[in-house]
Amino acid sequence: MYKIVFMRHGESTWNLENRFTGWVDVDLTAKGVAEAKAAGRALKEAGFTFDLTYTSVLKRAIRTLWLALDEMDAMYLPVKNDWRLNERHYGALQGLDKGETAAKFGDEQVLVWRRSYDTPPPALEKNDDRTSFGDPRYASLDESQIPLTECLKDTVARVMPAWNDEIAPAIRAGKNILISAHGNSLRAIIKMLDNISDADIVGLNIPNGQPLVYELDADLKPIKHYYLGDQAAIAAAMAAVANQGKAK
Ligand SMILES: O=C(O)[C@@H](CO)OP(=O)(O)O
């Protein structure tokens, strides 16, 4: 039996402001820092140890990982930064207020943009200042790999090669792995692992800064999964994420 732990970053400044974030590189709030440290303590207290860690190239996930590792006294662990674990690109919605967007376009439309499997948000224009073209962290990528928007299906298509080519072989080699990533890049991995239908994935919301443990069989099929920590608080945090896209 294998185990892997996933963790969404702690609260970011744009989570607090309720803005669509995607590939924008915002940092953690003080609450996000506290969540990341608490996640590290929870992992340590539950006896988890790791050999290898993965995160995105966005600082909210990277800092969450660093803070959690510090709490575990495990900052020596290798950290692999992979752009393919980035948040889903939110296209022209990046920077907009989620509640205001719902008031303008309706809760239903915003739910489709936030959670549907194959309907992307409106795309950025190529000459929009908000594109990631020219950002040095993506210098090794072909321009065609840098999204202007993404639906979850697109995110699955970029995350899965990272899973299949890097992470799954490391799990099979017996490495204990911690992944610090994002709400929608984790939804992409979980959809694939649990074989969640395109319809049911709409209802899956991931809370900030809560370690999510997956136990996997020899074929890397999930046996069970559970969040560490206070289950009522986690359920409330998931419901709060679901409600972020509603007009007040
Ligand atoms: O804004 C985003 O990039 C994501 C995660 O914070 O939000 P949502 O939950 O609306 O997909």
From TrEMBL:
Functional summary from the UniProt entry: Catalyzes the interconversion of 2-phosphoglycerate and 3-phosphoglycerate.
Keyword Manganese in annotation: no
Catalytic machinery residues: 9, 87
Pathway this chain belongs to: Carbohydrate degradation; glycolysis; pyruvate from D-glyceraldehyde 3-phosphate: step 3/5
Protein name from the UniProt record: 2,3-bisphosphoglycerate-dependent phosphoglycerate mutase
Annotated family: Belongs to the phosphoglycerate mutase family. BPG-dependent PGAM subfamily.
Any GO MF annotation of the entry: phosphoglycerate mutase activity
Claim: Cytoplasm is one of the keywords in the record: no
Keywords of the record: Gluconeogenesis, Glycolysis, Isomerase
Enzyme Commission number: 5.4.2.11
Catalytic activity: (2R)-2-phosphoglycerate = (2R)-3-phosphoglycerate
NCBIfam families per record: pgm_1 (TIGR01258), PRK14115.1 (NF010713)
InterPro entries the UniProt entry points to: His_Pase_superF_clade-1, His_PPase_superfam, Phosphogly_mut1
GO terms classed as biological process: gluconeogenesis; glycolytic process
Enzyme type, top EC level: isomerase
Organism of origin: Massilia aurea
Binding site for substrate: 8-15, 21-22, 60, 87-90, 98, 114-115, 183-184
Self-association and partners: Homodimer.
Residues with site note (Transition state stabilizer): 182
Pfam families membership: His_Phos_1
